[in-house]
Design goal:
Layout lengths: L3 E2 L9 E3 L23 H4 L5 H8 L4 E3 L2 H7 L7 E3 L1 H7 L4 E6 L10 H13 L4 E6 L3 H13 L2 E7 H6 L1 H9 L3 E5 L5 H9 L7 H13 L4 E4 L5 H20 L6 E5 L4 H14 L6 E7 L4 H4 L1 E6 L8 E6 L21 H8 L4 E5 L1 H15 L7 H18 L4 E6 L7 H8 L10 H8 L7
Parallel strand pairs: 5-15, 6-7, 6-9, 7-8, 10-11, 10-15, 11-14
Antiparallel strand pairs: 1-4, 2-3, 4-5, 12-13
Bound molecules: pyridoxal-5'-phosphate.
Pyridoxal-5'-phosphate (PLP) binds next to helix 6 and helix 12.
């Protein structure tokens, strides 16, 4: 009856797994938002340092993790894998439930897995300052921490609704030395444009990305960093699934289904890509992404070229999208309020390799409370979507009287999200219907490519 399955420090993976050579078909080109032609590496240089641009398009299956990065990851990695005996008992399910816990990082989520290498590659490329955005505040705090460790300055544009809901995330970023600005702001053209149309704007990840990209390209010493969506971010996060695979083997098990919540796709890619690689070797593993019903990118969006941001400054990629000017309702899982998705995850959904499912926030909070009361850990509202998925799979196994091994990624803890739990217990949270009209309007504005 082992509960925690732990790896020693020297088993932190030495390489990331790059899924690009194993994708079901060629990748769609990334398009320059100005010329509408495929981007060249030089086009991206004002935004990202060269090593990250190279990783974005690399076809090398295994990519070395620099020692300087592993040395910092060692502060919390390898992260534990838990067998959720108590949750299984509470559900009365014959299913075995395992979860990989990424909340043990200093920032409390999986995000530092990519923040640390991104800060490192910027540092060795001569960048002095990073401009970035944050939704829930998890990415912002992670990159603030990583910049602090490599001696870089950091400015974070934080989505206004989260800035107001999560003041302690702001404090964490400031503690780690970053400047934090509520978005939309008066600092940038993009922010001023939005504010002139809607002075009360809640903000969105799409708007905050526009502000951060504009900030980065307007200064020679500054580059932009993104906490999700991009191929190199998914690459860095595969450390989660690589460790989990070893830990499952230590437990003498292999998952029938691997589950992650999906915002831009990075933690989902992290837990699932190394298992998807096994499908080619005959493993029959299902892979399931859970997203909010109020921002249902993978389940209700279209698979098309779209801008990564609201102000059309970021590159155009082929992905599932609800339209770059879609404004998701202000749900508490702020990190899942993104109109687009990782192009890699999108292609896998489109090819039928990955299943996607949308869930309402009240059902997610219900699952999070059950989880906290059985396993103890208080999950981030984003991670509660993965818990909902795992609980539903376990209940289905019970109904069918079948054994099933479930692995999910618990992407972060909710210690800085207690206002969301307060609102849930006070009965103040509501489910938002699928915002059909605003999605339709927004999808009418997709760019024409090719
Ligand atoms: C704890 C947590 N989980 C999940 C996400 C969603 O992001 P991604 O889809 O990139 O993993 C976020 C984003 O902020 C987060 O903070």
């Amino acid at each position: 009856m082992q509960t925690k399955i732990l790896l020693p420090e020297d088993r932190i993976p030495k390489q990331w797994y790059n899924i690009i050579p194993d994708m079901p078909g060629p990748l769609a080109p990334v398009i320059h938002p100005g010329t509408m032609q495929p981007v060249s590496p030089d086009d991206l240089l004002p935004i990202f340092p060269m090593p990250l641009i190279e990783q974005e398009v690399s076809t090398q299956r295994w990519i070395d993790i620099p020692d300087e990065v592993r040395e910092i990851l060692r502060l919390w990695r390898p992260s534990p894998l838990f067998r959720a005996h108590r949750l299984e008992k509470a559900l009365g399910t014959p299913a075995k439930i395992y979860y990989k816990y990424e909340g043990v990082s200093p920032a409390g989520s999986h995000k530092p897995n990519s923040a640390v290498p991104q800060a490192y590659y910027n540092k060795i490329s001569g960048t002095k300052r990073i401009a970035t955005e944050t939704g829930a505040g998890q990415w912002g705090s992670s990159i603030s921490l990583a910049c602090q460790m490599f001696g870089l300055e950091c400015t974070v544009y934080m989505v206004k609704v989260s800035y107001d809901q999560k003041p302690y995330r702001k404090s964490m970023m400031q503690l780690w030395g970053a400047e934090v600005i509520p978005s939309p702001s008066n600092r940038t053209h993009a922010g001023r444009e939005i504010l002139s149309r809607d002075p009360q704007s809640n903000g969105s990840l799409g708007i905050a990305i526009s502000e951060a990209v504009e900030d980065a390209v307007s200064r020679e010493d500054t580059r932009y960093a993104l906490g999700s969506v991009l191929n190199h971010v998914c690459l860095h996060q595969t450390i989660i699934g690589l460790e989990a695979k070893e830990q499952m083997a230590m437990a003498g098990d292999y998952p029938d289904v691997v589950i992650g919540c999906h915002g831009g796709g990075s933690n989902f890619a992290g837990i699932s890509f190394p298992f998807i690689a096994d499908k080619a070797n005959g493993k029959n593993v299902r892979v399931l992404a859970l997203e909010p019903a109020s921002c249902p990118t993978l389940t209700c969006g279209v698979y098309a070229f779209d801008y990564g941001d609201t102000a059309k400054m970021a590159p155009v990629a082929k992905m599932y999208t609800l339209g770059h000017d879609f404004m998701p309702p202000g749900i508490h899982a702020g990190g899942l309020r993104y109109h687009g998705a990782s192009p890699l995850v999108s292609q896998l959904v489109n090819a039928g390799v990955v299943e996607a499912r949308a869930v309402h926030q009240l059902a997610c909070f219900e699952a999070a409370v059950l989880f906290s009361r059985s396993e103890g850990i208080i999950p981030a509202p984003e991670s509660s979507h993965a818990i909902r998925g795992a609980v539903d799979e376990a209940l289905k196994a019970k109904e069918e009287g079948k054994e099933r091994t479930i692995l999910f990624n618990l992407s972060g803890h909710g210690h800085v999200d207690m206002a969301a739990y307060d609102a849930y217990f006070a009965g103040e949270l509501q489910d938002y219907e699928y915002p059909e009209e605003s999605i339709k309007e927004s999808l009418a504005n997709l760019p024409k490519v090719g």
